[in-house]
Design a protein that fits this description.
Largest sheet: 6 strands, mixed
Strand order of the largest sheet: 6-7-8-3-9-10
Low-confidence stretches: none
Helix content: 25-40%
CATH topology of the largest domain: Rossmann fold
CATH superfamily of the largest domain: P-loop containing nucleotide triphosphate hydrolases
Structural class: alpha/beta
Number of domains: 2
Radius of gyration: 18 Å
Mean pLDDT: 90
Oligomer: single chain
CATH class of the largest domain: Alpha Beta
Strand content: 25-35%
Distance between the termini: 25 Å
Order of helices and strands: EEEHEEHEHHHEHEHEEHH
Length: 250
């Protein structure tokens, strides 16, 4: 299986990450790295431990064992420095429904201590990138799920992070909305390092340079799309490969 190029800087590192809740292991000894400029898909069935792993990588959860790093910063001991380099979009990310996209972005810009000129420039840039111009002064509670996802993406991009961790950014969207979010991610992939959790295998095939797959809290595959297609007995079908590697438990 393909391993990332060790000579390229690692921007996301999981080293033996485990998270225990009493006797239950949500993840166990998960290790991988995502190098600068890669878009890596993070796959697994519901309950496999993807979101838990992502939360440990962002510093939102402390690991029971192991180390999570963003751009070389330990997210347990040096979280603030790592967070400056990181944009995170959780699944169903929390938004303030009574705010507008503009007021929400202004709030986060102030929370990050952005200077006034830079704040205005960045708000305008992410509104353009995420195509929010027509709803920028409308209450978030009145927006469709597709637009709310775009607002979450704009918030994650506001401070120009080098690293993006996106947890199911197209969950619950219709095909047109999925296409729009996918186009945005393609643009971002030109300049960012991205770890993308998704259940939509067409997205993986179209965009990912590598795939990391976990099942029951353990890594079960790491390699390219082509290598996944050549898993024995799947006949070039990544959906079959996904089931072969994760379906036994189901």
């Amino acid at each position: 299986m393909a391993e990332p190029n060790a000579s390229t800087p690692a921007m996301i590192e999981a080293d033996g990450l485990s998270k225990f809740y009493g006797p239950f292991a949500a993840t166990r000894n998960v290790s991988f790295r995502v190098n600068k400029g890669e878009l890596v898909a993070f796959l697994g069935p519901n309950g496999a431990g993807k979101s838990t792993t992502m939360k440990m990588l962002t510093g939102y959860l402390a690991p029971s064992e192991g180390v999570a790093k963003i751009a070389g910063h330990d997210m347990f001991t040096d979280r603030i420095a790592g967070s400056i380099r990181l944009g995170y979009l959780p699944e169903n990310g929390p938004l303030y429904p009574d705010m507008t996209p503009f007021s929400l972005l202004a709030f986060f810009a102030d929370a990050r201590g952005m200077a006034a000129d830079y704040k205005q420039t960045r708000i305008e840039a992410v509104i353009e990138l995420c195509d929010l111009k027509t709803v920028v002064h409308k209450a978030i509670s009145k927006l469709s799920k597709g637009y709310r996802q775009r607002v979450g993406m704009a918030q994650a991009l506001l401070h120009e992070p080098e690293v993006l961790i996106l947890d199911e950014p197209t969950a619950g969207l219709d095909p047109n909305q999925i296409r729009e979010v996918r186009n945005t991610m393609r643009k971002l992939g030109e300049t960012k390092t991205i770890l993308l959790s998704t259940h939509i295998l067409q997205e993986v095939e179209a965009m990912a340079s590598r795939i990391i797959m976990i099942n029951e809290g353990k890594k079960v595959f790491e390699g390219t799309v082509d290598e996944l297609k050549h898993v024995k007995g799947v006949d070039g079908d990544i959906a079959k490969a996904f089931y072969k590697l994760t379906g036994a438990a189901a």
